[in-house]
Amino acid sequence: MRVVHYLNQFFGGLGGEDKAGAPLEVREGAVGPGLVLEQLLGSDAKVVMTLVCGDNYAVEKQEAMIALALEKIREARPDLFVAGPCFQAGRYGMAAGALCSTVQKTLGLPVVTGMSEENPGVDLYREPLYIIDSGTNAARMRDVLAKMANLAAKLVSKAEIGLPADEGYLTRGLIRDQFVEQTAAQRLVDMVLAKVKGEPFESEMVPTAFAPIPMPPALKDLSKAKVMLITDGGLVPKGNPDKIQGSAATRWGSYKIEGCDDLKAEDYEISHGGYDPQFVRQDPDRLVPLDAMRELEREGVIGKLHDEFISTSGLANPLSNTRRMGREMAERIKQLGVDAVILTST
User: Fold this and answer.
1) Calpha distance 343→189 (Å, rounded)
2) Which of 121, 133, 57, 66 lies closest to 89 in space, CA to CA?
3) Are 346 and 146 in contact (CB under 8 A)?
4) 47 and 161 fall within a common domain
5) Residue 260 to residue 275: CA distance in whole angstroms
6) β-sheet bridge partners, residue 255
């Protein structure tokens, strides 16, 4: 079994965040976790090539990275492609998912990766891919690789793949037909009775869960507050300097408005595919109301409008990804000493 393995800059031994911009490089044989993977796959398997790429480069220049990776993978003539495991590293997971999905679709190869449930790559690629549940602790590397190796062997041999709980992969949101002894009504009543009695039971439909967000305290004096504008409507300067995607955006940008009282149509564009942007193109203040905020600032209703606004696209974005970007934005806002945010949408 010939295997090609993809790693990010950290697990590939290049370095940490200082090497996140490193372009794709090709190495012969197994590297880092690939040495363990090769061992777990058995004596008939060999990692013939390892692809290593920095997380920033892989996400920001994804098309170029994937095109070069496909070329090198074709040359290696593998029977299996493996990426990761990525654990909770979001950029790593998104790059690994995109690469696995393309390799599977374009080259027809079996692919396996591993991620934490919270990794944004899971929501983006859980349906087309088998993603082993890695959890968040990289110290479990060998255990995770063992599950990836077992599943990979089945995929290569075209053996039957069991349910997620049996094989260790994350649920894919697919429905399988299955013969059972009890009718749906009987199973439902049994679950309700178990719940009432405080006994364990397993629901057949797992609901989406949202963590409660506590209400922040109200501002005592808005006239002394520093206010910031944020939008998920995709307003960006001409040329989209941060390359914010119009759908399932992985990035956000911060743009200066110091000394400006009005957003000019010729200076901005929209990176968002979920609404008709013609009216915002005519007047960007309709989405990011700089003109109205300047009036409030002059009238003393607010203390000060911060001299930059934040923007991203909220279209078709996985929950885990928006949580990550939200945490990043919140950290930035705290550093700037902002007291309140007005979030505008489409």
Assistant:
1) 44
2) 121
3) no
4) yes
5) 27
6) 309
Residue type, 46: K
Please state, in angstroms and rounded to a whole number, the distance separating the CA atoms of residues 270 and 268.
7
- The beta-strand segments (E) located in the chain are 2-8, 25-28, 46-53, 80-83, 111-115, 131-133, 226-231, 235-237, 253-256, 268-270, 304-305, 308-311, 340-344
Report, as an integer, the average pLDDT of 142-150.
Answer: 96
pLDDT at 193 over 90: yes
Q: Are residues 140 and 235 in the same domain?
A: no
How many CB atoms sit inside 10 A of residue 19's CB?
18
Range of the domain at 138: 2-167
Instruction: Give the 3-state secondary structure of residue 133.
Output: strand
Cα separation, 260 vs 132, in Å, equals 50
Whether the model clears a pTM of 0.85, i.e. scores above it, the answer is no
- Asked whether residue 14 falls in the same domain as residue 132, the answer is yes
Q: Please answer whether residues 206 and 286 qualify as being in contact, where contact means their C-beta atoms are separated by less than 8 angstroms.
A: no
Residue of 87, 19, 60, 7 lying closest to 250 (CA atoms) = 60
Residue 103 structure tokens:
């390799």
User: Where a domain ends, among 133, 151, 167?
Assistant: 167
Q: Count Cβ atoms below 10 Å from residue 227 Cβ, excluding itself.
A: 20
Task: Say if 190 falls within a structural domain.
Answer: no
> Beta strands of 147-195 (E only): which ranges?
none
Number of domains in the chain: 2
Three-class SS state of 49? strand
Q: What length is written for the chain? A: 346
How many whole angstroms separate alpha carbon 77 and alpha carbon 75? 6
Same-domain check for residues 17 and 158? yes
Q: What is the pLDDT of residue 306?
A: 97
Tokens of 209: 């869960």
Q: What is the C-alpha to C-alpha distance for residues 107 and 101, in angstroms, rounded to an integer? A: 10
Confidence of residue 102 (pLDDT cuts 50, 70, 90): very high
Asked, for residue 66, whether it belongs to a domain, the answer is yes
Instruction: Tell whether the torsion through CA atoms of 208, 244, 127 and 39 is positive or negative.
Output: negative
Tell me how far apart the alpha carbons of residues 175 and 65 are, in angstroms, rounded to a whole number.
34
pLDDT tens digits for range 317-330: 877 678 888 988 99
Distance CA 72, CA 171 (A): 31
Same domain, 93 and 9: yes
pLDDT score for 72? 96
